[in-house]
Records
---
Amino acid sequence: DTAVSQTPKYLVTQMGNDKSIKCEQNLGHDTMYWYKQDSKKFLKIMFSYNNKELIINETVPNRFSPKSPDKAHLNLHINSLELGDSAVYFCASSQEQLPSGYTFGSGTRLTVV
Amino acid sequence: GQQLNQSPQSMFIQEGEDVSMNCTSSSIFNTWLWYKQDPGEGPVLLIALYKAGELTSNGRLTAQFGITRKDSFLNISASIPSDVGIYFCAGRSPGTSYGKLTFGQGTILTVHP
């Protein structure tokens, strides 16, 4: 029943590892996003995909690679993890012309040690 | 880039008190949104505003879209303990596509019983 679900909820990993976070939405939305929330709770957009096409890439290091196999899924792969990557990552979706329908997942807390 | 200044950064109030927080932007927006984030969860939409001067209520919450289109405020009346959380404003500027939102820094609300 969850509208935007992301897995895992928690991820603890060592520096240098590669990890993925998965996101799925069942709202029929055409646009999906990844946001990063830092330790000060600031939310910043990383990527946006519209119908599987990359639309927004906000100066994110190329170690971060989003993949959208279909418009209901947007996964985030991170290579060579660094300590500074520790944060909460939120997936979200919306129908492009209806920003009020912007729906967030419950977040993935990534801790790099 | 655009910046949203949200204030206050934090509030400590007694149950039953009214709360007011606001956001100001360096440029005009055509959409203002207010979200609440509970611990361990993603932000949830409270109120969406689409026209300058618009005043919208959702239960004990009231929000307004400023006439200048560069600001918005959120009021919570008769606060209760479950109002605790982080409140974010977010805006969408004219010509921005695919749901790109800019978020404020958040207001952390603590309600003492």
Note: Chain A touches chain B at residues 4, 31, 33, 40-45, 48, 50, 55-56, 90, 92, 94, 96, 99-100, 102-107 (CB under 8 Å).
---
Amino acid sequence: NAGVTQTPKFRILKIGQSMTLQCAQDMNHNYMYWYRQDPGMGLKLIYYSVGAGITDKGEVPNGYNVSRSTTEDFPLRLELAAPSQTSVYFCASSYSSGGELFFGEGSRLTVL
Amino acid sequence: RKEVEQDPGPFNVPEGATVAFNCTYSNSASQSFFWYRQDCRKEPKLLMSVYSSGNEDGRFTAQLNRASQYISLLIRDSKLSDSATYLCVVNNFNKFYFGSGTKLNVKP
């Protein structure tokens, strides 16, 4: 099992550009999450999903969109990138609500 | 008010020391509780779940006080390899909230 796979690992964007961070898991987990982590800070929840076709906002959803068309994939879309979106983005999945979170290795995004 | 608050540290301790981390959470309806470990520039990984009765895993002991909304982690006989950031995590209705982390440096 690959676990949770995120791509790309690194990306530099110009202000106003858009991009999609990909996340895939092969553990058949229903619950998936996107977090961002700024330097020296904890993780902030952007969006989450409790199953295919169901998504909901977390603590910091502005400037992002998600979709969950399959159990395996949970892409995060950044529209009109801004310097404030420079961060490390982590995707995670869980078998159950309140169960262990399994993280991808992270995607480091810089917006210049 | 933050969902989860932790002392950021850093805690600088010698090898063999005992060190304790604390965290508080704001939502009394929170359902499950965890400590995660994060190494520099890596993803967080589960260290242990935290139960009301308290639980132990080798040198690590976690405690939960629901009345005070307080979670603790005790590390005994610290090793150099314990140097990391320790994240307190609370689950509310499908959402996991993370504290900002407490940094531990174990020195030879």
Note: The mean pLDDT of chain B is 94.
